[in-house]
Specification:
With 245 residues, this protein is α/β, with parallel strands linked by helices. It is built from 7 helices and 15 strands. 33% of the residues are buried.
Length: 245
């Protein structure tokens, strides 16, 4: 019997925007995506709360600046539910990207929304797993806010009160303490090796030991492991090897 092509994901989506033209446009674009099965539009956060109580949705596309309950407020409310839908912010305000990260947004779209960019957001939703709310972070690149995937990040370095994310294409400064990233990304294989360094184990190329001191090589750079954190790193590596074997 020949194999069959899996049916595309049929996402149930809620769109919330107090500006009717923007709401209608986004609903229209989403309805044109074959991965979206049903789209409901609401022109206020209050109406959206009622819709969320009566039906289950896979994702909510939220405007940020709305009268009364803002999109950020609504996202915080949604996040407290037992099985919350994924959140995608759609806004003209790039400065809210850090708040989007704090609220575990899957994506962050800037108005006017381009069709190709919207399709990329839907792709992320359709392919997302159980940890969909933990695998992206908002960064600034050339004056443009975008989300990068956690798997792109090789290691994180403390820089003052901020954290610098190092990827294979460059680095990005984010206004978050390394302790917050350590807590959030622990299940993704990130390990603290120094008070100023957080490393993704799947990006470690080599481990060296000299006179009892460990260093790990990541992306061509040797990073020191503090004596205090060495036992925890060794144990994590043992667990990783057992899981892979």
């Amino acid at each position: 019997m020949s194999g069959t092509t899996p049916a595309p994901a049929s996402l149930r989506v809620l769109v919330v925007d107090d500006e009717r033209p923007a709401l209608d446009e986004l609903v229209y674009l989403l309805e044109g995506d074959e991965r979206v099965g049903e789209v409901t539009g609401c022109d206020s956060a209050t109406e959206a709360v009622v819709a969320l109580r009566s039906s289950a949705y896979d994702a909510v596309f939220l405007d940020v600046a709305m009268p009364g309950l803002s999109g950020l407020d609504l996202a915080a409310v949604i996040g407290r539910s037992a099985d919350p839908p994924a959140i995608v912010f759609v806004t003209a305000h790039a400065e809210h990207a850090v708040d989007a990260f704090d609220l575990h947004a899957v994506d962050y779209l800037l108005k006017p929304v381009r069709t190709e960019r919207l399709r990329e957001a839907v792709r992320r939703l359709a392919e997302a797993g159980p940890d969909r709310r933990d695998d992206t972070i908002a960064v600034e690149l050339g004056g443009v806010t975008r989300l990068i995937h956690r798997d792109e990040i090789r290691y994180v370095e403390v820089q003052g009160d901020y954290s610098r994310l190092h990827t294979d294409t460059g680095s990005h400064l984010v206004r978050l303490p390394i302790s917050a990233l350590e807590e959030r990304w622990r299940e993704g294989g990130f390990v603290r090796i120094h008070r100023s360094l957080l490393v993704a184990l799947h990006h470690v190329d080599a481990i060296q030991e000299t006179a009892g001191r460990l260093t790990v090589r990541v992306g061509g750079r040797d990073l020191p492991v503090s004596r205090r954190l060495t036992p925890a790193l060794r144990e994590q590596l043992r667990r990783t090897r057992r899981a892979e074997g």
